[in-house]
Amino acid sequence: MTGAALLQADGVRFGYGRGPVVLDDVSVSVDPGESVGLVGESGAGKSTLLRLLLGLAVPDAGLVRFRGEPLRVRDRSAMRSFRRAVQPVFQDPYASLDPRMRVGESIAEPLLSLGLERSRLAREARVRELLEAVGLEADAAQRHPDAFSGGQRQRIAIARALAPRPELIVADEPVSALDTSVRISVIELFQRLARERGIGMLLVSHDLTIVSALCARMVVLEGGRVVERGTTARVLSEPEHPYTRRLIAAVPRLPAEGLSPA
After folding, report:
1. What is the DSSP string of 13-53?
2. In a domain? residue 147
3. Rounded distance, CA 169 to CA 85, Å?
4. Cβ burial 23-61 (10 Å sphere, 16+ → b, else e)
5. Is 235 in contact with 248 (CB distance < 8 Å)?
6. Does residue 124 lie within any of the structural domains?
């Protein structure tokens, strides 16, 4: 693709307080409509990198860029534009939804906070549309999260992320807390949303089968540094780094039934 990346980490370095460096000279970019997998074992720095890319932390060195410009986390107007375009989906669907809020209120919350739908009727119509898009009935809007299974809650979290019509979903291990059969159905939902809506994805996962199903390109992190990057097909078939080869050999795979490569 041509032009500036939608979201980019440019040589970022980060450490927590006086502790060791967690990320060292890491660069990752996602173009509009592109899906990129960020792969590595626990402690590789994946979730920390996502915090930087979401503006939840600031790098000690290097830059995070949004549409080619430095992300200005203290600029409320700039961050409102950023939040509209870039939405997160987190790992734990039980923790990511407020148990005190009805499902419809949770899905509509980004619309209110970003000032996108000031009409209550318009918000309710958008909530119904989003519930249908993720395979849930409209009456789910009136219920609380504890009435739903883990897979259904993750669908609700995805609906909430879709509410402001983002260009990119940043997903941190979005199916790892789910049972295998439910994981497959949620992956298929992500595939359909990318195909029908053209939404890009930055996916953090330790499961290479999920990355191969959802991402055309992947980046491998080890110990806070990028050790390999390239098309998913190339990296999985011809890994160049020993760490990547160990990941491919060691990571449990999802059953491939029903899943097609990105």
Report:
1. EEE-TTS-EEEEEEEEEE-TT-EEEEE--TTSSHHHHHHHH
2. no
3. 9
4. bbebebbbbbebbbbbbbeeebbbbbbbbbbbbebebee
5. no
6. no
Q: Please give the C-alpha separations between residue 83 and each of 76, 179, 224, 246, in angstroms, as whole numbers.
A: 10, 30, 26, 36
Residue 173 lies in a domain: yes
Query: Residue written as tokens 């932390």?
Result: 57
For 200, the domain range is 7-96+169-250
Q: Is the pTM of this model over 0.90?
A: no
> Residue 68 has which token pair?
């080619």
Query: Into how many domains does the chain fold?
Result: 1
Q: Phi and psi at residue 180, in whole multiples of 5°? A: -55, -50
Give the C-alpha separation, 213 to 188, whole Å. Answer: 9
Largest CA distance in the chain: 56
What's the CA gap between 234 and 138, in Å, rounded? 42
- pLDDT class for 2, splitting at 50, 70, 90? very low
Kindly indicate the confidence band of residue 254, based on its pLDDT and cuts at 50, 70 and 90: very low
Q: From residue 26, how far is each of 10, 56, 199 by CA, in Å?
A: 7, 17, 24
Q: Is 70 domain-assigned?
A: yes
* Chain position carrying tokens 């055309």: 216
Strand order in the sheet with 21-30: 21-30, 7-15, 61-66, 69-70
CATH (domain of 92): 3.40.50.300
Q: Is the pLDDT of residue 261 over 70?
A: no
Give the separation between CA 158 and CA 63, rounded to whole angstroms.
28
φ/ψ of 111, rounded to 5, equals -65, -40
Hey, what are 117's tokens? 């739908």
pLDDT of residue 3: 66
